[in-house]
Structures are given as C-alpha cells and as structure tokens.
Specification:
By secondary structure, chain A is α+β, with helices and mostly antiparallel strands. Chain A contains 10 helices and 14 strands. In chain A, strands 4-5-10-6-7 form a 5-stranded antiparallel β-sheet. A 4-stranded antiparallel β-sheet of chain A has the order 11-12-13-14, sandwiched between helices. Chain A has a 3-stranded parallel β-sheet with strand order 1-3-2, with helices on one face. In chain A, a hairpin with a 2-residue loop joins strand 4 and strand 5. Chain A is globular and about 60 Å long. Chain A starts with 6 loop residues before the first strand and ends with a helix. Chain B is of the alpha+beta class. Chain B has one domain: Alpha-D-Glucose-1,6-Bisphosphate, Chain A, domain 4 (2-Layer Sandwich), CATH 3.30.530.20. In chain B, 34% of the residues lie in helices and 39% in strands. A 7-stranded antiparallel β-sheet of chain B has the order 1-7-6-5-4-3-2. In chain B, helix 2 crosses helix 3. Chain B starts with a strand and ends with a helix. At the A-B interface, helix 2 of A face strand 4, helix 3 and helix 5 of B.
Chain lengths: 285, 193
C-alpha cells in the first residue's frame, strides 16, 4: 500500500522545525526522524498524518557529545552510531552492547535513539536504558525549551509527556563512573524481534559491596522503570548469588506485567525474574 | 478478545448505579469521547478519538444498552464503531456490574471485543492493550471521581440528571481499546523488528 496523502516539510534549522511543528500539529503533523515505526504505519494507512516535518536535514542535530558529565545525543543520531563506543568508559560499552539487540542492522542504520524514546514502545531497549540510567530529555517548541526526567517522560505504552508541537531535540544520559559495571539481558523468540522482557543492571563494587545500584525492567509493563524495592535489597550488600537471587525474586513480586494472548502475565513475571538475575550476575562477574 | 477491569467510586452502590446510567455524565468522563446524539433512552451515537503513537483516529459508532438489571445492578452494553477512513470496525459487548466496596462501590467491567476490517487482519495479540485499557479505565475513574466530588457539592445535580439512560461509556472506551489493540498488533508485526 501507499501512504495516504500528506504534506512534506524539510526544515533546515531547529527553529524552523519547531515553528512548522507548531503550525501543523493541530492538523496531525508528525516529526519524521528515522521513520522505522512511523513509515510502516503510514504504508499500512494506519497512521495518516496530515503533515510530516522531516528533521533529517536540520543542521546540527546529528551529534553525540559529552557536556557536563552527560552524554548528549541529538535527535538524528542513528542506533548504528552506538556500535562503536561513542564515549570512553562503561557508558559507551553499555550502549554498544545494548544496540546489538535492537532490531536488525538495516533498521539500526535509519532508526534514531531519540525517535525510539519519542515512540516509547514498551519493548524499546533505549527506553529501558533511559529509564534505568535516569536520562533527561530536552523538548523544544515555539513555546520554549523544557527538560523532562525519564520518570516524567514515559507515560505508558507509546505515550510520552511530549506535546504534539514539541520536538525531542536531545536525550542526555549521565556518564557512568569509571568503575561502574553493567549487565543487560533480554528475551525474544527470534533475534531482532521485539523483546518480551529485558533487564539492565548497573552498580559499582567497592570494598566487596555493591553501591549505586540501578536495576531496570523493560517490556514487562507499559513503560520501562527501575525497581526500587529490589535496588534497596542490593545496595551495600556483597554480590553473592543468594543476594542477587533475592533481588530478582523481589523484581518478580513487584512488577505488574502486561497480559495478553501470546504472553501471559505470569510468563512475563518469570522472565523478569530470570532476566533481572542474569543482568545482575553479568554486572557482578 | 476478552478482559476485565475494575474501578472504584466513592458513592454507595445505589447512587453509583444512578450515576453510571446517566450517559451524559459518563460520556464526559471517557477520555477522547464525544456524545453526538441521543437516539432514544437506550441508544446513543458517539465518537471516540484515540491515539497510540503515530496512529490517531476517530471511531464513530453507537452504543446500546441491551440489558439493565436494576435489582442486581448489572447491565450489558453493545457497541459498534467504525473508522470513517475505512481502517476497520469493532463490535463489542460490555458487561458491567456494581458491588459494594467499603463505603463506596466497585465497578466490574468485562469486555469482549471483536474486530473486523483491515485493522483486524495483522498479527495476533499484543503486549500493550491490557496496560492501555487499565490506564483508560483509571483516567475514566479519576474523571468520574472529580465529577462526583463536584456534583456532591452541588446537591441539586442528581435531580436534574436526565432520566434513566444508558452507558455507552465503557462501550466507547471499549471501541478505543479494540482499536488500540489492532494498531499495536500491526506495530508488532510490521515494524522495526
């Protein structure tokens, strides 16, 4: 199928992009970045936006840089950019590990980091990374610029705090300490499929005990999130298998999994337990 | 596709029953819903606007109160809706009943959704509907609570509420949910992975 009729706009600056967006938002205007979710939906005529504001030609939206201990990822940075380590230290390693789980290579060449956040699929790896590491999102519109925390940003399956006229201009990930460790595991039936569940863990080990523990679960609930109750059980403890298992059990008790014909809630809960344990074990190893 | 949701309101069952049968009040509490016509006291026409990710659509349809059991405070609503742009339609049955819960009332909603047309033919199942549905119900519940709080501060309201009518409320919400489901399925299958 061909998409329904729409008007295409190709602004050259962020200012003109947000001005256009303000103008067309009331008439179903959408931002086009990598288009890996939007375009298939348009081809099926499920999405019928009246206007597309293509930000691919906007100058200066394709950088990855470090500013004030944060990795700043612009709106047009592709998934594939993270195959190589974009920053030294554990954060770059974490991103280059996680990126290989996102869809397939041709999709990673086009799809963008920020587009994935703005789309907010519950099974998005980047959304889990953003939620677990405490990313901050910069939204721009003609009304100004605002910065949203991950906890405020993700509001449910494919729902974010972004208004229709706002452009997600950049995502800011805090750098991890040089001695931070991480573990990431996901489960999907076939490589490249949407994950049924996934987990990301990161902490440091000093004097034999874990500190700065962050443990996130994605794909299981409507939005990815940290499981504070499990983190609290790990903080200050030695990473023994008993402790890690207890925390993974806590994850399973805490989550309120999605439930559907393919994957029952109980199955997702079991996966959350197993993947949390594996993520923790990988980080501890 | 069948699923259950519950919500609680702070009114005793008798009053909650009256409120829930007051279609105008209920319609105003459904996210994205608009009541366009009261055909008769049991039949209503309306429109629900839904969005999931890049997919935004309005479903136009009607809901009819098929069975009302005042004694047991149960009702059955049948709802039909279609996308004017031809993406599909839904035909659904919603059963709801009230039971006392502390000082208030628990509303139990059971929905059975059938989908037809192009939106229905992709993939099967999704991971999100349940979550979206409960969010929708939660938002509906909150709006209803606010509404109830406002009207109880103005005692006259209950009296001037339109007679008995129906409850396309969950009917319409239902359509929205069905739509969400189908859209999500397409995403699951076609999209990035």
């Amino acid at each position: 199928m061909k998409p329904a009729r729409f008007e295409y706009h190709a602004p050259k600056t962020v200012e003109s992009a947000v001005a256009l967006l303000a103008e067309v938002a009331p008439r179903e205007g959408r931002v086009l970045a990598g288009g890996q979710s939007l375009v298939p939906a348009m081809a099926l005529r499920l999405a019928m936006p009246g206007h597309l504001v293509d930000i691919n030609g906007v100058a200066g939206l394709d950088r990855v840089r470090v500013e004030a201990r944060e990795l700043v990822i612009d709106a047009c940075v592709r998934h594939a950019a993270f195959h190589r380590q974009v920053v030294g230290g554990p954060l770059g390693a974490l991103l280059s590990h996680v990126v290989r789980h996102i869809a397939h290579y041709p999709i990673r060449i086009r799809g963008t980091f920020c587009g994935s956040l703005a789309h907010a699929d519950p099974a998005s790896e980047w959304c889990l990374v953003a939620a677990t590491l405490g990313a901050r999102m910069t939204a721009r519109s003609v009304r100004g610029t605002r910065v949203l925390t991950a906890a405020d940003f993700f509001q449910g399956p494919m729902a974010t705090a972004l208004a229709a006229d706002e452009l997600l201009a950049e995502a800011r990930l805090p750098l991890l300490p040089a001695d931070a460790r991480f573990g990431f595991h996901e489960f999907s039936r076939r490589a490249g499929d949407f994950a049924v569940a996934m987990s990301l863990a990161t902490f440091r080990i000093g004097n034999g005990v874990m500190t700065g523990v962050r443990l996130g679960i994605g794909g299981v609930e409507g939005s990815p999130r940290r499981i504070g109750a499990a983190e609290a059980m790990l903080e200050g403890q030695r990473p023994s298998s008993t402790v890690l298992r207890a925390a993974a059990d806590q994850v399973a008790r805490t989550v309120e999994p999605l439930d559907d014909a393919r994957y029952a809630a109980g199955y997702r809960r079991d996966l959350a337990r197993v993947l949390a344990r594996r993520a923790l074990e990988s980080a501890a190893a | 596709m069948e699923f259950d949701n519950t919500l609680e309101v702070s009114l005793p069952p008798d009053e909650a029953w009256r409120v829930l049968l007051d279609i105008r009040r209920i319609a105003a509490c459904i996210p994205g819903a608009e009541l366009t016509e009261v055909v008769d006291e049991r039949t209503y026409k309306g429109k629900v606007s839904v969005r999931i990710g890049p997919v935004a659509m309005s479903l136009v349809g009607r809901a009819r109160l098929e069975e009302v059991d005042h004694a047991n405070r149960r009702a059955r609503v049948k709802a039909q809706g279609a996308d004017p742009k031809g993406r599909g339609s839904t035909d659904s049955v919603i059963d709801f009943r009230l039971e006392p819960a502390g000082n208030g009332t628990r509303v139990l909603i059971h929905t059975d959704v059938k989908l037809a047309g192009s939106i229905a033919q992709y993939g099967r199942g999704s991971g999100m509907i349940q979550s979206v549905a409960s969010q929708l119900i939660a938002r509906f519940g909150e709006a209803l609570k606010t509404q109830i709080a406002e009207s109880s501060s103005r005692p006259a309201t209950a009296a001037n509420a339109v007679p008995p009518p129906a409850k396309p409320a969950s009917g319409l919400a239902l359509i929205a949910r069905a739509l969400w489901d189908s859209i999500v399925r397409v995403f699951r299958r076609q999209q990035r992975r």
